[in-house]
Amino acid sequence: MSDVAVIGAGSWGIALAKLLHTNGNEVTVWSILEDEIRMLEEKREHVDKLPGVKLPESMIFTTDLERAVRGKELLVLAVPSVFTRKTAKSMAGFVAEGQIIVCVAKGLEESTLMTLSDVVEQEIPQADTAVMSGPSHAEEVGIGLPTTVVAGAKSRRTAERIQDFFMNDAFRVYTSPDMLGMELGGSLKNVIALAAGMADGLGCGDNTKAALITRGIAEITRLATAMGACFETLGGLTGIGDLIVTCESRHSRNRKAGMLIGKGYTMQEATDEVRMVVEGIYSAKAALALAKKYQVELPIIEAVNRVLFEDKPVKDAVMELMLRERGAENRNLEWGEQADGNHTD
Q1: What's the predicted TM-score (pTM) here?
Q2: I need a surface site. Which of 31, 79, 117, 158 has the fewest CB within 10 A?
Q3: 292 is an active site residue
């Protein structure tokens, strides 16, 4: 039995805590919120964020960060992206040299454009920082439905160690060295999912959703590869896989927020209705800034930013996307024609 801790008691943190306990680990869950810890201790269930998922009596809940962090074989950092730096800074004094920290939130830091693993490495340089991502809604992982994700790390040994902690007959874990591609796929897909939700809110159909998913992964891949990520990663679980589930699922908070905005809610009204952090809203500005930095065209992500932060009506944003200058789907493909324009035999 290994001693592990989950830092953050949201729906994803709780689902992973249960999974780790099921795999035979001693699990401590930390939250900064005293009321949340009291509720988890008394109800053995997160009645607000993951109702119906019962937690074992042996699971430990605490607001004491030192108690949660010190001496653990694995730390799972599951706070929302906007709280990653603050939490990492608070943890730093309790983390030992080489202690594994797995970042499982999906987002970019708006002020620095850094990935979350980069933020953790900056605040806790002595840690062995890794990531885990993929199409994995907490509501399904919490009740043991088959799920597949990817563990990313700088060394094969660390990635395989994470694999050992999490993998079972309902939770399959692959490994990857491309942490950058995984994190960009995981954060940018939330912005595309907002667009997909907006289209749903407008009453658009399956054709629109398919186009948004397909052109969305093209935008994600364009930016990620410009930044140095591997093309193959974006075609895998942490790219197209995560994008599909986030754009389609009833569990997706980003899709739900987008759908409400498409129906006429303001951004604030939509996030209040969702009652959880909508990561895509925080990643949207960072994605646009990265597009400008790397001189990459991201029309869907640009449109989402205009709707969120410039009060652009969703219907007008869709029309602008449809009326963009015509072009080829893939500019790298060549026509099989001779120089004079005649088709080859």
Answers
A1: 0.93
A2: 158
A3: no
